[in-house]
């Protein structure tokens, strides 16, 4: 029921709205609970409180999924705006007005997949810091750091290598990716899609194939993740990818499919030793992003 006009309208709790947005973005009460550092039962109580205040259901729930209702979709836009305004107001009083330019390097794969989320959220909390992004191979990015052409860089390393002075953000398996329902992995010689020389995933994949004595041919080469995905989804070839990069249109190919184990890789970060306040702010934000990913599996 709508509140009578002669009574003050209730105030929406920003903490509840933050939980609501987290559920809408993840599609899961459990995943959202991890993201907002609450128990699933506490999250459920928050949403019940929100629905009681509004007198409307904001989520449609079934055994497998959580989706927004029409009212929930309307609320989502308002909730994001309110949270954004809150961040802007609070940052004016609590967060120092840090100004500057940060030169950030990233490999193509994480530049495409992670940086849009990182930079969007960072711009909301630090609007006076500009981030200048360079996308390149890890080996080239390391040289740029050594030449002081970058302030921060992300690097991918194989399980056999590590970058001196690097902070490991993430370690995960490299797997063989194939098209769902595809047959590229059954062909002889095996058609593979690879990155250029210097890629940690390429080195691990070729070593695994050599160890197993599997005949292969390089059917496709690309320095970009989008190109690798195209080769996989067209069933032109199989390719080594981090396990978290697999989409719903791909499958992980295992030893039972005739594909050898590749091993793991790590994503690391190097920060300039004389880092300025803006550089430290970006580095802290990247660390926080990967902490959430390790807990929830989502950026």
UniProtKB/TrEMBL annotation:
One of its GO terms (molecular function) is DNA-binding transcription factor activity. It comes from the Bacteria. Residues 12-69 form the HTH lysR-type domain. SUPFAM superfamilies: Periplasmic binding protein-like II, Winged helix' DNA-binding domain. Gene3D superfamilies: Periplasmic binding protein-like II, Winged helix-like DNA-binding domain superfamily/Winged helix DNA-binding domain. It holds the Pfam family HTH_1. Keywords: DNA-binding, Transcription, Transcription regulation. The keyword DNA-binding applies. The keyword 4Fe-4S does not apply. Belongs to the LysR transcriptional regulatory family. This is DNA-binding transcriptional LysR family regulator.
């Amino acid at each position: 029921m709508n509140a009578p006009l002669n009574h003050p309208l209730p105030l929406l709790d920003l903490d509840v709205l933050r939980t609501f947005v987290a559920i809408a973005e993840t599609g899961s009460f459990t995943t959202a609970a991890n993201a907002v550092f609450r128990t699933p039962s506490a999250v459920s109580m928050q949403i019940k409180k929100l629905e009681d205040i509004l007198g409307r259901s904001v989520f449609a729930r079934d055994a497998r999924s959580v989706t927004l209702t029409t009212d929930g979709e309307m609320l989502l836009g308002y909730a994001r705006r309110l949270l954004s305004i809150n961040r802007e107001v609070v940052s004016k009083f609590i967060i120092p007005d840090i100004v500057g330019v940060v030169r950030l390097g990233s490999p193509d794969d994480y530049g495409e997949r992670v940086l849009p989320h990182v930079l969007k959220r960072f711009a909301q909390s630090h609007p006076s810091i500009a981030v200048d992004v360079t996308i390149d191979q890890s080996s080239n990015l390391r040289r740029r750091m050594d030449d002081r052409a970058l302030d921060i860089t992300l690097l991918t390393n194989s399980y056999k290598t590590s970058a001196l002075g690097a902070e490991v953000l993430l370690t995960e398996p490299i797997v063989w990716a194939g098209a769902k329902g595809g047959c590229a992995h059954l062909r002889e010689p095996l058609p593979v899609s690879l990155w250029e020389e210097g890629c940690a995933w390429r080195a691990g994949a070729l070593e695994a194939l050599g160890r197993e004595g599997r005949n292969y041919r390089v059917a496709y080469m690309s320095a970009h993740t989008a190109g690798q995905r195209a080769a996989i989804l067209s069933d032109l070839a199989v390719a080594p990818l981090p396990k978290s990069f697999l989409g719903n249109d791909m499958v992980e190919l295992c030893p039972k499919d005739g594909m050898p184990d590749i091993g793991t890789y790590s994503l690391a970060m190097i920060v300039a030793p004389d880092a300025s306040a803006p550089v430290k702010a970006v580095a802290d934000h990247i660390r926080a992003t990967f902490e959430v990913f390790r807990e929830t599996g989502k950026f």
